[in-house]
C-alpha cells in the first residue's frame, strides 16, 4: 500500500569539534536520496546545555561535600 524506505538508526554521538548530535533515523545506504534526509534543529545546543547542567550539578555536589568534610 504505502512505499516504505528502509531506515537505519543512528545513535547519539559527539563530533570531533564537540558538537552533540542526537540520535535519529536515516535511509539505508543506496536506498534514499540526500534530499530525503531530515535534520533536527537545535540538536547541538541541546547537547551543550545538558553538558553544562551536569557540570553545574557536579560543582554543587562537590561544594556540599567540601562543607560536610570540614
TrEMBL record:
Chain segments carrying region Disordered: 23-45
UniProt entry keywords in alphabetical sequence: Membrane, Plasmid, Transmembrane, Transmembrane helix
Low complexity bias (residue ranges): 30-45
Record-annotated membrane-spanning stretches: 48-69
Source domain of life: Bacteria
Keyword Membrane: yes
Protein name, UniProt field: Uncharacterized protein
UniProt source species: Nocardiopsis exhalans
Amino acid at each position: 500500500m504505502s512505499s516504505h524506505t528502509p531506515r537505519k538508526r543512528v545513535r547519539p554521538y559527539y563530533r570531533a569539534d564537540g558538537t552533540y548530535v542526537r540520535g535519529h533515523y536515516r535511509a539505508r545506504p543506496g536506498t534514499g536520496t540526500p534530499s530525503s534526509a531530515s535534520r533536527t534543529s537545535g540538536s547541538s545546543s541541546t547537547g551543550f546545555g545538558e553538558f553544562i547542567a551536569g557540570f553545574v550539578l557536579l560543582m554543587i555536589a562537590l561544594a556540599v561535600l567540601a562543607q560536610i568534610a570540614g
